Amino acid sequence: MSVYVVDTNFFIQAHRAYYPLDVASSFWEKVKQLAEDGKIISIDKVKQEIYKNNDALKQWCKVNLPVEFFKDTSEIMDIYSQVVGWAISRNDHYLPHALAEFLDVEEADAFIVAFTLADNNNRIAVTQEISEPFRKSKVKIPDACMALNIQYVNSVDMFRLLQETF
Fold first, then answer.
1. The CATH number of the domain where 139 resides is what?
2. How far apart (Å, rounded) are the C-alpha atoms in residues 65 and 90?
């Protein structure tokens, strides 16, 4: 069974744009269920990005997600170095600020890619980002995933693959 590794934008875009906590309770109940069943997970860097805002989403995560939901990325630093190597090898394409942002240790994107790559046969990255291979000003998760042969999907496709509705 594949495990889906969800990016920060899975939560933030759902909360702010598509499925507000006060309107779409069935979505959030489904997220809670999938987290409790171990079908979706995330990483400590995503937790940090969510928790820096003291808002309803942070509170929902604290109350509803299992303690083990946000995985420790310190254990995948050797794989992270592979992602760093790929990004640096693309310095003829990406602008310096794009690489700096992608490789910022406080940012989740490269760590999502690395954490998924660490168990590439069983993990699938979930992001709302859309591939933009010709863009120079931002390294997108889908582009890193494609370059490193990592499977990724958006939120809707994840629910479809899991055969889940809400």
1. 3.40.50.1010
2. 36
